[in-house]
Design a protein that fits this description.
This protein has about 110 residues and is an alpha+beta fold. The chain contains two helices and five strands, in the order βααββββ. The chain has a five-stranded mixed sheet with strand order 1-5-4-3-2.
Length: about 110
């Protein structure tokens, strides 16, 4: 933990990260593509851990609740979006992760 909030992934969010990684690996044709796939997942995980563990309330609200928000994670020409919920005074739960070009969370 790098901040006052513990960051946890739900099972669905872990599946999302694996799905996104598999998508990148399936399209990889060169060693650089494989490295980029790993770099994308590393960027996603680092952003979640380094930002949400410190200041989860500064990110945009997703819906009516002040406790459900989205973190935009730039990567390359697009990036990722992590939907998260703030639980109590010390926990952030990653609920879902998607690529910015996907329609929405599933």
């Amino acid at each position: 933990m790098t901040g006052p909030f513990e960051v946890r992934y739900t099972a669905a969010a872990r599946e999302d990260v694996l799905r996104l990684f598999d998508f990148l690996l399936e399209r990889a044709q060169t060693l650089e593509d494989f490295d980029a796939a790993q770099a994308a997942i590393d960027a996603l995980r680092n952003a979640v851990q380094n930002h949400l563990s410190r200041t989860p309330f500064i990110y945009r609200k997703a819906g009516d609740s002040a406790f459900v928000r989205e973190l935009i994670i730039p990567f390359g020409n697009a990036g990722y979006v992590a939907l998260f919920g703030i639980e109590g005074a010390d926990t952030v739960n990653i609920l879902a992760v998607r690529h910015q070009r996907e329609d929405d969370y599933h």
